[in-house]
Specification:
3 domains; alpha+beta; Alpha-Beta Plaits; Arc Repressor Mutant, subunit A; 4-stranded antiparallel sheet; 9 helices
């Protein structure tokens, strides 16, 4: 698995108790509103909304917040209209970045993202410059002590998954986004809660970085992810587990 997927897992685990939970609330509320606006307010008919609600539950967001965000998206309550933005960029060591955001002012967000990149040894690239290096995939991480590899393989492959790999203390499952819900449901039917379950952008190949470059890449990611308009940052770096743990610690 790429270093960034492992980093995402570490950040996801920290998210439930992170002191910056308020910022996480803001990001998820925006995603819930945008998802409801794009696909309707019924999570049973709107996979994007269903995923956003699951994220909200993970960080213990009050149900009333989620309900109001949905109503703002469907127009039942007045609210801000958010525009989806996508930035191609490069970080230290030639690492490719794909930055997803939701904003009510594209010009402001573009300027602020460019400023973060400039200050942290990165640079904004032309549209499409890095997007081709990533593929949208369903991704699940399941702890090994919850199930055997053979049993998990039978479950996820029957549900339509593409691949399962062993990585450290976890199994990593990838699938086409169209079958993500089915694969996730098949796993959860066995009373197994994945560490991570999301539709994300996985790199087609990775760039190995270490030393100062590794440290600088992770610092850049943290600054980008802290920006309230940024929903997700995808990167194709490969950093040793030791360096990742140091950064997370």
């Amino acid at each position: 698995m790429s270093g960034h997927s492992k980093w995402a897992k570490i950040k996801h685990k920290k998210g439930a108790t992170d002191a910056k939970r308020g910022a996480a609330f803001t990001k998820i509320i925006r995603e819930v509103t945008a998802a409801a606006k794009a696909g309707g307010g019924d999570p049973n008919k709107n996979p994007r909304l269903r995923t956003a609600i699951a994220r909200a539950k993970f960080i213990n967001m009050p149900g009333s917040n989620v309900e109001n965000a949905i109503k703002k998206g469907t127009g039942e309550l007045p609210g801000v209209v958010y525009e989806t933005v996508l930035f191609d960029a490069y970080g230290p060591g030639g690492v490719a970045l794909l930055i997803e955001g939701l904003t009510d002012n594209k010009n402001r967000t573009t300027a602020e993202v460019r400023n973060i990149l400039s200050k942290k040894n990165g640079s904004l690239a032309g549209a499409g410059s890095t997007a081709w290096m990533f593929t949208k995939k369903g991704f699940l991480s399941i702890e090994k002590d919850k199930i055997s590899e053979e049993e998990l393989m039978n479950i996820v492959l029957e549900a339509g998954a593409d691949d399962i790999k062993s990585d450290g203390s976890s199994y990593e499952v990838t699938c086409d986004p169209s079958v993500f819900e089915a694969v996730k449901a098949a796993v959860e039917a066995k009373k197994i809660v994945p560490e991570t379950a999301e539709i994300t952008m996985l790199p087609n190949s990775t760039v190995k970085v270490q030393g100062d470059d590794a440290k600088n890449v992770l610092t850049l990611l943290e600054f980008l992810e802290e920006h309230e308009d940024v929903q997700a940052v995808h990167a194709n770096f490969d950093i040793s587990e030791e360096d990742l743990e140091k950064a997370a610690g």
